[in-house]
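Hi, here's the filled form for the chain we discussed.

Project: internal
Contact: R.S.
Residues: 421
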Amino acid sequence: MKHITRTFALAATGVLTLSLAACGGEGFEDDGGGDGEAGQSEAPASADGPASLQMLIASSGDAETQAVEEAAAAWAEDSGNTVDVTVASDMGQELAQGFAGGSPADVFYLDAGAFATNAEAGNLYAYEAEDNDDFYEPLREAFTYEDQQYCAPKDFSTLGLIINQSMWEEAGLTEDDLPTTYDELAQVAETLTTGDVTGLVLSPGIDRAGAFVVGSGGWWMNEDNTAPTANTPEVVAGLQVVQDMISSGSAALSSQVDTGWGGEAFGTGRAAMTIEGNWIKGAMSNDYPDLDYLVAELPEGPAGPGTLLFTQCWGVAAQSEAQAQAVELVNYLTSAEQQMAFADAFGVMPSRQSASEDYTAAYPEDEAFIAGGDYGHGPINVPGIADVVADLNSQLENIGSADLESVVESFDSNVQAVLGR
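And the returned structure, exactly as it came back:
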């Protein structure tokens, strides 16, 4: 079912831009852990007496910091433990320093893009939160390494098609014209392209073009992340969709229209449509409050619906001496009730399926984003691949004229080198 939502002239409601840095094991009898299908064979370390937990987060602003601090304090009061929340200025660097120095935070935000590297390094304690199956399956997969889930998804976002309501109507388009396929997307993008307005403007790189790869039935790695699969007809076909629209002039990258990202191109009227996550709400309400727009699920590709997931998890340190208490805290923070409190405070979408109905009732404008939780794809889940992904993104900065076969061959070769180390 196609989900379409409309958003009009947003006032400042305290919903802030989603922080994206981009978020196990067997159940525990003593700590209220998961359902025990896989994973941790050893009992978690438990503090003697009340635990003093250290938590490290990357915050989008005061609203997020305050909400996390209040939730941690509430759990601490109920449990008799204490939690000290620290906001990182450079999450990756501070996590790495903590692991290297032997004194990491007990609980921390961990971006899906950094997950596999830390799992391979032995930095993470593998656990499953209570009612683990309630988390969207693609989110659980995002935090699974070598068949072991390590941590509970904290929240998530997906990509949606963001459409300028006024431009859409002025072009004579109606709800019946909302694109459901890539061909239809190309057609409406062409219709909406006029003068200084480009029909569709995308931020560069795989975090946008990758959605078309998913919809075309491809991905950059095989299912168990043991071999690259970029040099396949499906991946090339997905990239070709983007290249063809850019070559035709009906689409462009944000840099080609002198803007920093798709949301800026959309807000300034350089784009009639863009593809972004629900974090765009904050940008629109803060910078372009008079802009009327609607949000739809991304059109389906030949393989079906496709979107990307952006997520973090609650990591627990392998070196923590209070793993049991840390997991108890995560259980509290990932309850449906607390996830809704976080959604109200700073605009994130709950990672639990059981919270989706309450969330869409409170925020109907996000229904199209929530729908992607069922079929979205997480990031490339391979240790030590960050430089390879950066190189791929660099090559896709000129996707309109790039030799796509050369791009995917280069990626596969670079991944093979990483896997062979």
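Let me know if anything looks off before we file it.
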